[in-house]
Amino acid sequence: MNKFIFDFTIIVSYNFNKLEALMGKVLIYGWGSSLHLGIPEVNEGLVNLFKKMKVDYVIHEDEATCAEGLSGLGYNDELIQIAPKIKEKIEKAVEKHGISVIVTPFAASYYGWNYTLKKEGFELPVPMVHISQYLYDNLPKLHFKEYKKRVLIHDGCRLGRYAGVVKEPREVLKAIPSLELLEIHHPELEVGARNLKPWDMSPCPGGWLEITMQPLMKHVAKNVIDRYVMPEEPDIVTSTCANGYHAFKAGKEYGGHNIEVKFFSNIVEEALLEE
Q: What domains does the chain contain, in order, with CATH numbers?
């Protein structure tokens, strides 16, 4: 086949699949993880968001809670061992409900299925995207009211530094009228001519400690808020990872900081006008 025709076929196929996914039914993945972490508001925000967007959705409650986070903790082999069972349940949900795209608020889940497990030969029947990607792809259809807040964005490490999903959440937040977007600065890393971007310097608030040393998480998150969040004087600190949001919430409560902590898509849902 002519190389041009081959490349063109790939482009047309990709755009068609992407369009089909945007117009089709969504499977919310990570529901059980949010409940396990004590952040049901992430689930509630996703449901309200899809309702406002007039998007059909299905809740995938049959999952191994926080499983994809195992890889980042050094338990890659354990994740690979349980992946077939998780994949089988996803496949059944996709077939039963006619799912076009899987949407998750967790950076670890997105990275796990698109990178770690994909390298091991695990392919999902439909794409799994992060909620920031889904909203970015739907941005022309979204209409917002004014949201007069200074919002500091934190990048989930698996989403920002690892997977490079950094443009999408920023462009979505920039589209909200009157929202002032702030970036994290990490003075210890801003040395020489390293030309680091904000997501390269985005310090981890310790969400992974929930799995290993939970009592430490609030201390780590408080320190991150003290050192890197409060100097920017935001009204809200938000994270692109629900696990990071979970940690910031614990750190804010422990430190008594005078700021709000909101998950990325909850901000979007609050500012979004119904279609």
A: 3-137 (3.40.50), 141-271 (3.40.50)
